[in-house]
Design goal:
By secondary structure, the chain is an alpha/beta fold. The chain contains 18 helices and 21 strands. Helix 3 packs across helix 4.
């Protein structure tokens, strides 16, 4: 049964009305910014009127030089010359002349739509007259310098990373980093916020592919609800969560969604969950046949449009008060050596809820011995969960064992219990050791969450990012990845100019008495040796700041590095204002001039705010 969401529908209508009003307002602002004599007026103390001349958006010298080079010194870059520019400067090697003409045609239509308010009316009239409305002919004749500059600023045509899935999706699930949520049902903090299916829907729409649900009995013990146990969080029904997952699982991409259950149920309720899951998901639900030994996980490609369950299979004696949660303090393995058999050695035990157990594709389990034993690689593949603190401690003493474990098995990392405000932790410790499921609180707005969003913009934003080959490779002596490699990659980036704030913000949003004073902070976040940061100059009283500054970063492990960009507005008397941010996977950055869209604190993209940047990469053998 399909569910309708009135609130979502109302939001969409509200956004449509808002976007129409923004379009109209933006058109007026665009005209004003194009007027050489236009000014911004600011009132001081109700008596004084300060006027600031509005700067025009002009091509930087580097853009002028490149245009001149590929246009052979002329005033117009032909479609063939434009194709040569895309191939040689932008490294888009597969572009044909037909592709170049199509891009120019689509770009000309977009520019006409943005700059000509009569275009919609003309288009409507042309439909009635069954004749094509007149359009710019840039797709036939080429681009002027200004049109070329405008093209470079269009993220839709000239974004910093590829928009489509381009990684090999046929390897086992253990070969991928997977976009993973923690306590996915919470709307806010971990102690007293409401539980709802809304944050689950938002996460799926963003591309998250692992949803965590904590299952608890209702007070009557006759049904199952979802909430953060032993807290004041208000519950939501399991059936509501499952139906929303079914409806939105593949909004972003067709690759599988994993539901991890934190199971606090009785045997009877597990049987109810099994029936609920099979009825709601039907053929969408994937689980292995009983005779399948599961010595290797299936691939994302093989599991397209499928939903899979991951939890700890219940054993005899775990039916009533036995807590099978992996996130309680007692569930983390200690480093004490013990003579108990480990999860690798345990023989299969009959389940108290066979219908429930049969639906589990990714088996999780608590290690019964020390950490070293827990990381032993057995014949069957499985999932192990560690808290962020346990991972950091394990990485010091058992780093190589963790990497070996994650080559075939799945490792899930979750936030420590004291993160009651739904804050997050540094994800790179997990990624450096091959952890596939680095679980984050997606309802937050911290800078670490920006990094998570940035990492999973890779591979078309499909929620699965192929792990670098070195994390899957074993040497002749069984040695695995060491971050202290000797290959040094140099990434040079240049921040040219920013634009769009005057379209997305009111005139006095940043400063009541003058235009904003923007500056840009640029970070590389990755393995410890690669982390670095730079800052541009502050550009006073400019809605269109021109920085034209270049920065060079040396990286030893660019495959795991993330470029973090943040624009702030300088304030002499208070904390600097936020002007936008983005995070981008360094390994996916496309060379050449690129339009970089910025996002707000919550990770929502601004309508108009962009930076024009240039990326270059060089590889050389040098000491790290």
């Amino acid at each position: 049964m399909s569910h309708s969401h009135p609130s979502s529908s109302e939001n969409r209508k509200s956004k449509t009305k808002q976007s129409k009003s923004l379009d109209s307002s933006s058109e007026k602002k665009i005209k004003k910014m194009g007027d050489a004599n236009a000014t911004n007026n600011y009132k001081m103390f109700k008596f004084f009127n300060r006027k600031f001349k509005i700067s025009e958006l002009k091509p930087p010298p580097d853009v002028e030089d490149i245009f001149s080079k590929f246009a052979a010194g002329g005033d117009l870059m032909s479609p063939d010359q434009f194709r040569t520019f895309l191939i040689e400067h932008q490294a888009e090697k597969s572009v044909t002349l037909a592709d170049a003409k199509r891009i120019l045609h689509e770009f000309s239509l977009r520019r006409q739509h943005l700059t000509d308010p009569k275009h919609k009316k003309d288009k409507k009239q042309s439909k009635e007259n069954k004749t094509a409305a007149p359009a710019h002919q840039t797709h036939e004749h080429g681009l002027t310098l200004d049109e070329f500059f405008n093209f470079l600023f269009e993220e839709e045509f000239n974004g910093p990373i590829k928009r489509e899935v381009h990684h090999d999706m046929t390897a086992p699930l253990s070969h991928y980093f997977i976009y993973t949520g923690h306590n996915s049902y919470l709307t806010g903090n971990q102690l007293s916020s409401d539980c709802s299916d809304v944050p689950i829907i938002k996460a799926l729409e963003r591309g998250v592919k692992v949803i965590e649900l904590d299952l608890w009995p209702t007070s009557s013990k006759q049904d199952v609800q979802v909430y953060h146990g032993r807290t004041l969080t208000a519950p939501v029904t399991l059936v509501k969560c499952l139906k929303s997952i079914k409806e939105h699982a593949f909004d972003k991409s067709p690759y599988p969604v994993v539901i991890t259950f934190e199971d606090h149920l009785t045997t009877k309720l597990r049987c109810i969950v099994a029936e609920m899951v099979t009825q709601i998901f039907g053929d969408m639900l994937y689980y292995p046949k009983p005779e399948d030994p599961m010595t290797e996980f299936p691939s994302p490609e093989a599991l397209k449009y499928r939903i899979i369950i991951s939890t700890k299979p219940p054993k005899v004696g775990e039916g009533n008060d036995k807590d099978s949660s992996e996130e309680s303090e007692k569930s983390d393995c200690s480093d004490k050596e013990t003579e108990s058999k480990t999860a690798v050695d345990i023989k299969p035990v009959q389940s108290e809820a066979p219908e429930y157990a049969e639906l589990i594709t990714i088996h999780a389990g608590k290690p019964m011995g020390g950490l070293k034993e827990a990381l032993e690689v057995g014949e069957k593949v499985r999932r192990l969960s560690l808290s962020e603190q346990k991972l950091e401690k394990a990485a010091e003493d058992h780093g190589a064992d963790i990497v070996r474990f994650t080559q075939r098995n799945i490792l899930r990392i979750y936030p420590k219990g004291t993160r009651v405000t739904s804050s997050n932790y540094k994800p790179h410790v997990g990624w450096m050791h091959g952890a596939q499921m680095v679980a984050f609180n997606m309802q937050g707005r911290d800078k670490l969450l920006w990094l998570m969003h940035g990492m999973f913009r890779a591979n078309g934003g499909c929620g699965y990012v192929k792990k670098p080959g070195f994390l899957m490779h074993k040497g002749p002596n069984n040695e695995v990845f060491d971050p202290r490699r000797h290959l040094m990659v140099t990434k040079t980036l240049k921040v040219y100019v920013g634009n769009g704030w005057h379209l997305d913000f009111s005139q006095t949003h940043f400063d009541s008495f003058s235009p904003p004073d923007f500056y840009t902070k640029v970070y590389i976040v990755g393995v410890p040796a690669d982390c670095a940061k730079y800052k541009t100059e502050i550009k006073d009283d400019e809605w269109i700041p021109v920085w034209d500054e270049e920065f060079t970063f040396g990286m030893t492990v660019p495959e795991l590095a993330i470029l973090r960009i943040e624009v702030r507005e300088y304030d002499r008397s208070d904390k600097d204002d936020f002007g936008g941010q983005t995070c981008l996977p360094v390994s996916e950055l496309r060379t050449g001039f690129r339009s970089v869209a910025l996002y707000d604190h919550k990770g929502e993209k601004y309508t108009s705010v962009r930076l024009l940047m240039r990326f270059q990469i060089e590889s050389n053998l040098a000491p790290a």
